């Protein structure tokens, strides 16, 4: 079955964007997954195609109306989870990517302006997700990030199935460093163990490097990994 992504946005030209290239683009062409993009503005009902209004209680910016967003979601809704991309959301993780990849697809609502009326987020049971602690001008780039990380996990998208399970985060550790030819470059030599042909020693070195780098760079990840 084709894994289906539906995106709801006020900027449909931002899709497929980078997802039309490389691994995801090839998989889109070959039907591993499908992408449909809906312009939220198509669900406005007035002459000016208004989708937003001023916030109750006052303040800066505009808020997307719940009735317009609900009609847009309704046009694609099925059994798939509905994700609302917002800097107020919980941080998206590799475990989320795997869970979405294991399901039938996803519906992604991209916010703009100051936000989306909270009632439609609640009534649709949306999952609010963020990609990090910084503010983007809209959820579109975040949706592209989520889709990239999910699509590469779909069966048949990545060349070597092994490289997905060995990489950073699926083990809870950061990845070890990589080297290729030349064995010496600008006076820097590749670690001797990698040239030794001793597979057990190579594996042990890589594990130790993963642990060292995780401890140094991401003590938060290390605290979790060290207890497992
Ligand atoms: Cl999902 N949306 C916006 N607008 N900004 C973000 C984000 C999402 N995640 C991090 N920053």
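^ Assign residues to that structure.
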């Amino acid at each position: 079955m084709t894994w289906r992504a539906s995106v709801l946005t006020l900027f449909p030209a931002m899709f497929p964007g980078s997802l039309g290239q490389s691994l995801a683009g090839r998989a889109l062409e070959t039907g591993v997954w499908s992408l449909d993009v809906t312009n939220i503005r198509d669900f406005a009902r007035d002459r000016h195609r208004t989708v937003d209004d001023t916030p109750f209680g006052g303040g800066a910016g505009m808020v997307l109306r719940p009735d317009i967003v609900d009609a847009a979601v309704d046009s694609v809704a099925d059994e798939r989870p509905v994700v609302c991309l917002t800097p107020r959301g919980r941080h998206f993780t590799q475990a989320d990517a795997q869970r979405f990849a294991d399901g039938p697809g996803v519906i992604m609502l991209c916010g703009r302006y100051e936000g989306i009326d909270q009632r439609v987020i609640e009534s649709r049971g949306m999952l609010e997700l963020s990609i990090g602690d910084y503010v983007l001008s809209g959820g579109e780039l975040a949706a592209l990030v989520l889709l990239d990380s999910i699509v590469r996990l779909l069966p048949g998208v990545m060349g070597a199935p092994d490289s997905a399970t060995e990489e950073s985060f699926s083990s809870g550790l950061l990845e070890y460093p990589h080297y290729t030819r030349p064995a010496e470059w600008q006076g820097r030599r590749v670690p001797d163990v990698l040239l030794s042909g001793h597979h057990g020693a190579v594996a042990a070195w890589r594990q130790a490097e993963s642990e060292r780098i995780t401890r140094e760079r991401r003590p938060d990840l290390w605290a979790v990994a060290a207890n497992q």
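The CA atoms of residues 159 and 221 lie 28 Å apart.
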